[in-house]
Amino acid sequence: MGESGCGKSTTGRTLMHLLEPTEGSVYFQGKEIGQMLKEDPGKVRQNIQIIFQDPYGSLNPRMTVKEIVGEAVKLYGIAKGAKELDQYVTDVIVKAGLRPEHRFRHPHEFSGGQRQRIGIARALALNPKFIVCDEPVSALDVSIQSQVLNELRDLQQDLGLTYLFITHDLSVVKHISDRIAIMYLGKIVEITSKASMFSNPLHPYTKALMSAIPLPDPTIKVHRVELKGDIPSPIDPPTGCRFHTRCPYATDRCSVEEPLLKEVESDHQVACFLLDD
Asked: What is the pLDDT of residue 116?
């Protein structure tokens, strides 16, 4: 779960090297993506695709759906000839929840949810193994969000896809994720399975997030963990543990030493000195 702020997320674009990362490495199938892009960029782009956050700004308004989805298909030679390309694009957009005749329309003729389905179809077109879903439903109405999420989950099962799903919405996380990583100011503070994360959060920041989830029953009393202070600037993060300026349990050690991710329970990693013992 990311924490990139209220604007357009940069996390997914950095993972894809559409934005040059300032530090760190990302590995795909045991190889560093930056190095793979230098050696064989075409293969990387075919195996790793992205669904962008903004269904309005991520589509070329001058291109039809057929051109948007079919552009990379032609480039990679997946479909040969106009007739085969037309059928291929039709099959892909139908998988993504659109109708065959939609391939002749332009993005401005669609709703936000339909535009995001065009983005999904574009990502599926090259038969990738891995898709970065960069807050793909945050710009959509709640009712449309559920439709798109269900379609993404069905596609994952039908096509055997792996998703990296970046979002701020805990209800979305619970609906679609198998494993969850919680981030604070660009650092992962906790990683575990979905069941473990929601039933037994261990990092103080994760506990605060989980306590903020609204419950439909107003009679149930929930202990809310309130975090005081402002989020520090990600450009100039605090020394030591990045969460220490807002953590109710912080000690002097937290301000000078950065905790490392450690397995504190089976398949449950946390970066916090409170759990060292």
From this structure: 95
Q: Give the helix ranges, DSSP H, for the chain.
A: 11-15, 33-39, 41-47, 65-75, 82-95, 112-124, 142-159, 170-176, 194-199, 204-211, 252-256
Rounded Cα distance between 154 and 141, Å, is 20
Is the pLDDT assigned to residue 198 strictly greater than 90? yes
Residue 51 phi/psi, 5° resolution?
-110, 120
Cα–Cα dist 253/138, whole Å: 37
Nearest to 9, CA basis, from 45, 1, 96: 1
Q: What is the per-residue pLDDT across 58-109, written as a single tens digit (0 to 9) for each?
A: 999 999 999 999 999 999 999 989 999 999 999 999 999 999 999 999 999 9
Location of structure tokens 């903004």: 54
The DSSP bridge pattern shows strands 130-134 and 162-166 to be parallel
d(CA 209, CA 242): 16
What pLDDT score does 277 carry? Answer: 64
